[in-house]
Amino acid sequence: MNNKRIVVALDAMGGDYAPSVVIDGAYIALLNYKKKDPNFLLEYLIFGDSDLLTALVDKIPLLKSSSTIVHSEHKVAADDRPSYALRNSKKTSMGMAIESVKQQQAHAVVSSGNTGALMAISKVSLRTLSGISRPAIVGLLPTINHKVVALDLGANAECESSNLVQFAIMGDAFAKVMLGKDKPIIGMLNIGSEDIKGNDVIKSAAQVLLNQECLNFYGFIEADDITKGVVDVVVADGFSGNVAIKMAEGTAHLCRKILERAFKSSVFAKIGYLLAKSSLKSAFKSIDGRYYNGAMLIGLNGVVVKSHGGADKVAFANAVETAVELSKHNINHKIIQEISLLQQHMSL
Amino acid sequence: MNNKRIVVALDAMGGDYAPSVVIDGAYIALLNYKKKDPNFLLEYLIFGDSDLLTALVDKIPLLKSSSTIVHSEHKVAADDRPSYALRNSKKTSMGMAIESVKQQQAHAVVSSGNTGALMAISKVSLRTLSGISRPAIVGLLPTINHKVVALDLGANAECESSNLVQFAIMGDAFAKVMLGKDKPIIGMLNIGSEDIKGNDVIKSAAQVLLNQECLNFYGFIEADDITKGVVDVVVADGFSGNVAIKMAEGTAHLCRKILERAFKSSVFAKIGYLLAKSSLKSAFKSIDGRYYNGAMLIGLNGVVVKSHGGADKVAFANAVETAVELSKHNINHKIIQEISLLQQHMSL
Q: Looking at the predicted structure, is the pLDDT value of residue B194 above 50?
């Protein structure tokens, strides 16, 4: 039951390289879908400074024919407080893009702007799905053989066990759409110290999940199990989830730096690099952060995708494609179905 | 004020490859110190099955002349509960090795055994240092240019702000000894979501640390700042600290796997590997986990070093050398001094 036409609202003024990266990324996503599925229709509502945007979009006929530019007077700054951004949301490109989802003019919104503001405005404007008390940030991480879904990546520094149970349900639906798995394996992040295996919050959440037949709950995992690909979905509170994803990014970056240094350290190594170059490039594509760009603010009445603030056009295109896939496959409908299934067995 | 003779107690029956790895590792550490400092005297008390140990030690004259074997009837199993290990500690190699530190027969103890048991027995036998309410696990992580100290790596899943302040003091002393820094830069692990920057516990701990002139407190850092080497000491609760170190291990392992696959993917890549091999090996030594083996259970009246359960002989030797350095430089004396300095300014 895929939708054959999806409208994505773009906050063209958010992120370090706005609006040019947004426009170029939107065009790349458009080309990718033209190739993948010529019958599928992708359209944009582009919010921001209309003079600036018109000049950029006019240069790209294909994009122009698929887009409507909507002028916004202001934008959310990277250091705006969420409360400030919320008060002014009606006049900012971010706020207006989110509002277009609420008004059902767009299926999804993509922004590279301030995460706190995006979450605050989305929560107030779209409200949480029935049965979900707090939205989470969900994204993909690389493993040796496939991608893995992880949440919460930083929206909720502190969680109750009911939040973690809801994260598991939302992660399950997200993995079904983004990994194409029928019964994603769900693990809960814990620590390896035999002294104290976790805290009461995760213990009681795990207890609830163990008893759900409709979920494929694996149990506790440790952080080094994530990259091994032991599970398809990693459930964590927003503090440890954020530490996990940032530590993965930092360590991958460190490995690349060490590799670069090694290849520059001798003449033999330099020649070796030239010979292995194309193999290395395609291998490292599997952990290239750009292909993991696009985290969903999940648990809201609408698809809200956060692109990295420093995203380039390839990365931004990936965020747009994430928004399209989630909309096409009715992610929120899947979540609501699972919750009602679970509610027949328990009180969430 | 370095000690010229250090006695290390070895739990020879702990870890996946005990006792042979313990014996071989102890010998490597002995050789390393002979080379580094011929005037320094390293001696061992080796606890475990005396028949087995005598047979192994007798084959290595240098080790034999530096060691005393002490028979223990039992050992702590990898899956023993801490409470069980504690009750039987008088008869186990781990318990007896720790007791020898308490009785001042040894300066330090090294074990690859069950972490929970090691922590429980050490806490009861050695007790915490005056001014420290809870011991932590502290270790080293790689960055692009140097090593960084991180704690707590998993002893305390939940912490109060006073614990985090004490971890900062202990981390400072550890960095002075192990990194040789005069004024180590201390950072507190936090998350990057602008929505909620951390929780009350870390906020109030940071407030206390900001006001201490004797500590070089940097403020909050995010997990990807760790590998960038922004600070020398990372302070975290045991849950997020454990997630950080295991995620780093997992990601480094993933990068190596991807690299191996790339070098096998074509004939050119294979030849490239052969040319770059020696440069790659020496570069990757800087993130080889074996050279980071040896985490201290810090905050106790005695030096207790935990080696990885799966450590090989090189890794175990590194854990022994960590124990020696910490003992030589009177790590616990440094901690006590710092605490009394801070206590003049505040109530911890």
A: no
Kindly state whether residues B228 and B127 are assigned to the same domain.
no
3-state DSSP: chain B helix, strand, coil percent, rounded to 5? 50, 20, 30
Give tens-digit pLDDT for A254-282. 988 888 888 888 898 899 889 888 888 88
Which candidate from B196, B253, B266 shows the least CB-CB separation from A157?
B196
Task: Give me the CATH number covering residue B182.
Answer: 3.40.718.10
Identify the residue among A240, A271, A288, A297 best suited for mutation to test binding to B, counting B beta carbons within 10 A and taking the highest: A240
Same domain, A146 and A166: yes
Q: Do B243 and A244 touch (CB under 8 A)?
A: yes
B114 in reach of chain A (CB within 8 A): yes
* Calpha distance B151→B245 (Å, rounded): 10
Distance from C-alpha of B267 to C-alpha of B244, rounded to nearest angstrom? 37
Q: Is residue A342 part of a domain?
A: no
**Same-domain check for residues A209 and A276:** yes
Inter-chain residue contact B246 with A192, CB threshold 8 Å: yes
Beta-carbon pairs below 8 A across chains A and B: 261
Instruction: Flag whether A340 is in a domain.
Output: no
Same domain, A140 and A79: no
A122 touches chain B (CB under 8 A): no
Span A298-338, pLDDT tens digits: 999 999 999 999 899 999 999 999 999 999 999 999 999 98
**Cβ contacts of B257 on chain A, cutoff 8 Å:** 144
Alpha-carbon distance B222 to nearest alpha carbon in chain A (angstroms): 7
Q: Is residue A85 part of a domain?
A: yes
- A154 and A113 housed in the same domain: no
Question: Choosing among B255, B273, B274, B304, which should be mutated to test the A contact, i.e. which has the most A CBs within 10 A?
Answer: B255
What ipTM was assigned to the predicted interfaces of this complex?
A: 0.90
- Are B237 and B315 within one domain? no
For the stretch B127-139, pLDDT in tens is: 999 999 999 999 9
- Is the pTM higher than 0.95? The answer reads no
Same domain assignment for residues B90 and B228: no
Give me the residues of B, 160-219, that contact A with CB < 8 A.
189, 191-196, 198-199
SS (H, E, C) A131-197: CCCCCEEEEEEECCCCEEEEECCCCCCCCCHHHHHHHHHHHHHHHHHHCCCCCCEEEEECCCCCCCC
What is the arithmetic mean of pLDDT over A103-107? 97
Structure tokens at B288: 């080889």
Query: What pLDDT, on the 0 to 100 scale, is given for residue B144?
Result: 82
Domain ranges, residue A87: 1-132+299-330
- Among A239, A266, A290, identify where a domain stops: A290
* Chain B residues 127-146 within an 8 A CB cutoff of chain A: 137, 142-144
Q: Is residue A338 part of a domain?
A: no
Smallest Cα distance from B62 to chain A, Å:
36
**DSSP 3-state of B46:** strand
- Is residue A138 domain-shared with residue A284, that is, in the same domain? yes
**Is the predicted pLDDT of residue B76 greater than 50, yes or no?**
yes
How many domains does one find in chain A? 2
User: Which helix (H) or strand (E) segment is B120 a member of?
Assistant: helix B115-126
| Dist CA B45 CA B26 (whole Å) | 11
User: What is the residue type of A156?
Assistant: N
- Tell whether A282 lies on the interface with B, counting CB pairs under 8 A: yes
| CB-count exposure of residue A97 (10 Å: 0-12, 13-18, 19+) | buried
Query: From residue A102, how far is each of A9, A43, A123, B105, B151 by CA, in Å?
Result: 11, 17, 11, 72, 45
- The residue of chain A nearest to residue B78, with distances taken between CA atoms, is A194
Helix (H) or strand (E) holding B228: helix B223-228
